[in-house]
Amino acid sequence: MGEGLATLLINRKEYYENCPGCKMDRKKEAQTGFPIKGLLTVWVVVLSAGSAYMLGRALTSIFWGAVADRYGRRPVIIFGTFVVVIFNTLFGLSVNFWMAVITRLLLGLLNGLIGPIKAYAAEIFRVEYQALGMSTISSAWGIGLIIGPSLGGFLAQVSLFLALLMHITVLLGCGYCFILDAGKSI
């Protein structure tokens, strides 16, 4: 009988009042069956964040094309790079649903990278290699979507200082590339 009581005491979970993790653990233990409500909630959050970004891009892509034609591609690309770093960081630090959606919408509205980069690729590749240039942009985008979140998740676990150091290093590297290419026109 003593062993059975010891096993019950070891397996007994202790919950504390006003502990957010404890509340979630209790909620998960109380669930029975297939968690369709949780799946739909996650689906709506991801769909809203993704569509907010694409809505912002759709609303301002013509504007960013005109800005790139008037002021040049380099300022638009540099501004877009800073916007991506700032708003993706803010998106990662979102504390609620609406902050996440608004951050993604602002990222889409202020991010004019794709148009100038595609125009630049069309200019630097001969006609027979333009398809390769455009597919390189899509491939780089896809690889970035795979590596970026993975690297960000790893760095977030390591330390905040290392993550900030990585962001600064990437920004300095981008700036260095533009300084080296100052003799050529983008």
UniProtKB/TrEMBL annotation:
Keyword terms, alphabetized: Membrane, Transmembrane, Transmembrane helix, Transport
Keyword Transmembrane helix appears in the UniProt entry: yes
Domain Major facilitator superfamily (MFS) profile: 1-186
One Gene Ontology CC term in the entry: plasma membrane
Domain of life: Eukaryota
Regions that span the bilayer: 34-55, 75-91, 97-117, 129-148, 154-179
Membrane topology: Multi-pass membrane protein
InterPro entries with a match to the protein in the record: MFS, MFS_dom, MFS_trans_sf
GO terms under biological process: regulation of stomatal closure
Gene Ontology MF: a single term: solute:potassium antiporter activity
Compartment(s) where it occurs, according to its Swiss-Prot or TrEMBL record: Membrane
Family of this protein: Belongs to the major facilitator superfamily. Phosphate:H(+) symporter (TC 2.A.1.9) family.
Name of the featured protein: Protein ZINC INDUCED FACILITATOR-LIKE 1
Protein source organism: Capsicum annuum
